[in-house]
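Board work, copied verbatim: Protein kinase
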Amino acid sequence: MTLSNLTETHLLITWHNATTLLDDIKKQISDNFTIKRIFCNSWDNKDFLGNLVQFYAHSQKEKSSDDYLKILKNKIAHCGNGKFYVFVIEDHTPHYDYRLTSNGEQIVNTNIFDLKTNLRELTGGGHKIHCSNNIFESNKDLTLIFHKNKDDFYKEHQGNDQNIIKIKQNCLGFNGFNQIEDLFYLLNNTIQYCVLRNFECLPNEYTLEGHGDIDLLVENLNYIVYLTNAKPVFPDKNYRVHYTIKIDKEDIPFDFRYLGDGYYDVNWQNEILNTSIFFNNCIKTPNEINHFYSLLYHAYVQKHTVKEDYKIRLKKIAENASLKYGNDQTENENILHHFMVKQGYEYTIPLDETVHFKKIIEKNYREEPYKLISRNIVRYGKKVYFSEVFRYDERTILKKGSPYIIKNEFEYLSLLKDYKYFPKIYEYSNKNEIHSIKISYIHGEKLIKKIITDSSFWTAKNIQKIHSQILDILSILTLHNIIHRDFTPNNLLIDADFNIYLIDFGWATSSSSDTGENITPNALAQNYRKSINNFNDWYFYSRIAGKLFFRITAFKRVSDFLSKADQKDYLNHSDLQKLYDLNKMQTLQFTLKDYFIITSKRCKLFYNKLIKKLN
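↓ predict structure ↓
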């Protein structure tokens, strides 16, 4: 049946606790709309919650699983779990405008929305009446309830009939899907999705023996999980996207990639979804260009090595799409990079920790011939924070990374610019979501490496010198309300003259303000902090002193005193007198035993070097 362009089909549900007013509800509907069909449906009590999970998946997709289930259990208590009535109605004069919904202000069909509002008042308030707000929601609801989209529904139900039709039918896919076509029928009518690759054998081959994981890009992870009753393979690892969906009584593996997960640039992900095309008339796949470049990206950025089967497939796709595929890795990396730059796409770090991404950051800066010194990548919640340190020139370090890390470097090094113990800032800039800072290069080594390998260090004078300097550094941080939070031997550098420098303020924070973002990775100073959330730089030094000089009597006293120090006391002390009393400890009293230990350390290092040289 062909409807006029203006006519819209909508679905209205009267949940069980409102069915006593069914006649009044029916009259209000028929006064303004055409009733096409009325169904009386029922779900078993044990299945009611699971059906609601699927049915409301779209509107509640931002809710966590626990919060979502709590909302739905409250809904059942409010609306009942007995038989309910489904009206399929037509609005011949639809009108769209803004209305305040449970998800904020949205553009809706106001005729239908106002009907729902009036019926909710009639039934005592609350949400005992459900109604689709637009034609997308209407088609989604029809597909879930009746297993038919609007067009297929009208093929079976022509004309108008107000007799109540009794059915007993769960949502499509509630107990799994009879065949894979049923799954894609549901997806095609409910969610933005795209099968990224390896779709050539679908839908004919999808079993575990005939196909590997099916890689889906979807608009929202929770939505696809709630909608399809997908089960996580690794429920204790929330970064994993490996799920199974039951098809023909078999658990078929899927990987769900989703908007904003870093698998691809989010702008590219949107482009892939918005330009998807149908394959075999039932499966949405990327168009030729996005298919080629997303596979090229997958092979050359997300894999350790490019296997031969990828090269064969890429070459074939390129030929069919009149695109270029090169003869070696460097050429193909340049082809990909040219596409990324032209489209304005970033190389992004996936939230899924199992995805290889070693080359991503390198590609971003491939035009920069600087020597990479170190790279740090940290996941915190659903975000990824990264930084890279380059040797820019003889006097300069270039550090690039996430805004949070580089902003901290700039803010705290700016506060410390007048002190000799910290790098100096030369330049700070930001480009999109990648910030950079140029700072002075410290000509030194990590503290722990220097004192272990350099026998000339082991004198009472040098030990006293670095102890004094570290106490100065801690005093300066305290004066400026700075908590470094990563005050470990790796971030203490020592030069040839045994001068100490503190670097890497990317995770620093201020004790004077509780405002702003405060990221605390689990591994931050893990082996030095007093407890899981206790970042006390003075305590950190007690651990360092204890490790480096654990046999020296004087340092047992230092370590013991500092281990009991409360950084908050120092930070809150107005004149910091208590803090400076601690600096009297700079003059260490060494015993004969201490001198013997120092001398033996020096001799041992000299002996080891000699043996190494002789060998």
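Confidence is low (pLDDT under 50) at residues 359-368, 570-580.
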